[in-house]
Amino acid sequence: MSIYKYNLSPQALRLTHFTDFLVVTPSAFEIHGKTYITDSWTNVPSSILPLLSRRLHLQPSHPVSLTRELIERRFPLPTYIHHNDLSPVVSVAQNFDSLGFPADHPGRNRSDTYYVNRDTVLRTHTSAHEADIFRQNASEGYTISADVYRRDAVDRSHYPVFHQMEGARMWDRRKVPGGDIAKAVWADLTKMPKYELEVEDPNPTFHSERNPLQAEHHSMDEVEAVAAHLKRSLENVVVELFSKARAAAALANGPNALHQEDTLKVRWVEAYFPFTSPSWELEVLWQGDWLEILGCGVTKQDLYINAGIPNHIGWAFGLGLERVAMLLFSIPDIRLFWSRDERFLSQFTSTKNINRYKSFSRHPACYKDVAFWLRSSCSSAGGGLRSNAQDFHENDVMEIVREIGGDLVEDVRLVDQFQHPGSGRKSLCYRINYRSLERTLRNEETNEMHEHVRGQLVKKLGVELR
Fold first, then answer.
1. pTM of the entire structure?
2. How far is the C-alpha of 227 from the C-alpha of 223, rounded, in Å?
3. What are the tens digits of pLDDT across the range 186-220?
């Protein structure tokens, strides 16, 4: 029986309290000291397992961790408890069922999610822990920061492991004076700081069709109050983050770098999310463009009811830490976050000042194409690489390339597709950009990787190379 050991650095061990290695056998995974039996649903590749110990959001002076710390400042103890050390292995019930995902939701597919086995996954979002935290009911608010895992595209802004942060604030009807939620929320709002900020918020707090309130659970006055508290809280997060980023940009590019924008500008945009209503996205005007920062809204009451706290009402938000960190620190490629190169890591020190990333190398790209015919019996179910190898999903291509090339692949793009008019067979052509962040790749090694990719496409997906 083959056994693969993934050695972790002493620093990683101190940060995560993981065991000194992860053991993988054909029949079981041992992760964080616990053994998981594999089955026909298992699709976690060997390249993902060593990343379970990295947890960038807890590494001192790492830009992902610094971003987390900046945001947490706006959600102080004891009102908010910060959960940063939750296991990445969760049950299907936690990840999907507790949040009301329909049985046929595409997020459940093995093409999108890493299954440890039929009943267990690597969490795809921090909300996998939401019901448990609601059920504990240990505080009026909380944040969760964690590594999450998804099978996804290969490019400069996507990675199979990234970090999310979510937060929530709740009020209990039984505990507020006179049961008056609206009055209690407005009273809490008056205690919050208000900064100079230009805010565009042209729409009503709720709209019966576009952005409805939960009329069977919440009054209009309650929603107005909760929404105001939510928006003030998150506007203050923007001030915390982007005032420092603006100072860093001015230092790097001179006082005219931000086009003489003296005041930070944000705008609220109506949105839809399955776990909140009404819902919004918060955008910030940054270097001439409106950029989405986060999504949020009034928490769906069903989540509270299912967690056993039906008397609560509140709000929630969620964001991607890498996305925000890339903006704050001007980091152009998501792979850099995973670099152990001191030329990268030494550029970031503390939350007192935001240091913009300075490129320490730029190596040439090496483009190689791979074209193939799909099998005539292919479907788009995908996600297999084992029991469903006859099916095709683009994420299966991405996973094969990522497993072989790792961080030596910058992006993979579909550049051509063709359907034969006679046979109806479909042909696809993908262009792979091999480029290291740290060194120039040799032709011999890129050719070897590419031939391995071609071979694995045939072996695992049953395609016919062109």
1. 0.87
2. 6
3. 999 999 999 989 999 999 999 999 999 999 999 99
Q: For the segment 98-133, what is each residue's pLDDT rounded down to a tens digit? A: 988 899 999 999 999 999 999 999 999 999 999 999
Report the alpha-carbon distance of residue 182 to residue 228 in Å, rounded.
Answer: 10
* pLDDT score, position 424: 87
| 318 close to 237: Cβ distance less than 8 angstroms | no
